[in-house]
């Protein structure tokens, strides 16, 4: 396929270090339970089934773009979709998250873990439908889960508060851990290739739970694999965004994985985040970082927080520590967020209020 060339998309301008004509904004988890139209179309269809239905996944991806005037769509999918496509037994349990049929704990489990060896046609078809609906000012962001976050679901068997079995594997059986990483990377790359070949305009690598690790563990057990994934698409020419929650102490190390854009959670002011990133790997574009809870705090609070975050980003850029800013939350939209609060926040961020 020929990729779209979007010369007038604020998100791509910001990601490339150019000055956009408005502050680009999208929200992690902008599709989903906060929208009544989402709850309606998902009725009676399981989360993972919906990720393999091209018309439905395209519709859900477009819902927040139509409603909120965000500058990007994020592909409606999940980090476990490539595992499901490879034949791994996994379901998404409502209110909980991804749960595996059986946890992956031993070398034999790892050797038997299926590897995704084909493009995922349903997702590619969904992406083509989305691209047919987006304007040339709206980017489509694809994504994959990074190996640590994905491995945590496999090793723990489901969502985990402390990730202790995963960390225990790293430290008690490092060879087993590295074998798991080696086994996961090709699946992640194949799913990313599906999305790139279908025409996504940008991508995000979600290492949501990396912030649970020490920097030393992150560098030894995780970073080499995230480098490999990002390097794999070096020449493609789409911006790469890298994000994790609670990664204040890891921003430098994570920035060394090689993305153009670093997502920052709400705990670290953007100018301080930028100093850490600059010191480790040079100035990059920042993405973030409104606390998702602020969408419950009313217009005045959102206006104040948006102004603070924009000022911190501007300071980082003035100081030479960053080359741009894409507005986002510091993590995903919380499930009970009123849809109207999201629309209002987008207008405030765009400066239309
Ligand atoms: O039935 C439902 O509606 C279930 C809720 C839900 C949704 C809407 C899940 C289960 N996944 C999703 C979609 C999803 N997952 C998107 C959609 C696109 C968008 O942002 O609008 C994305 C980007 C993801 C990626 C994802 N899944 C991540 C990384 C992002 C993040 O939030 O940190 C993670 C960690 C998951 C696992 C997952 N899937 C679902 C849940 C509830 C969870 C988290 C479980 C846990 O706390 O461990």
From TrEMBL:
EC numbers for this chain: 4.1.1.37
Domain of life: Bacteria
Main location per the UniProt record: cytoplasm
CDD domains: URO-D
Catalytic reaction annotation: uroporphyrinogen III + 4 H(+) = coproporphyrinogen III + 4 CO2
Gene Ontology annotations for the cellular component aspect, listed alphabetically: cytosol
This protein's name: Uroporphyrinogen decarboxylase
Organism: Corynebacterium halotolerans YIM 70093 = DSM 44683
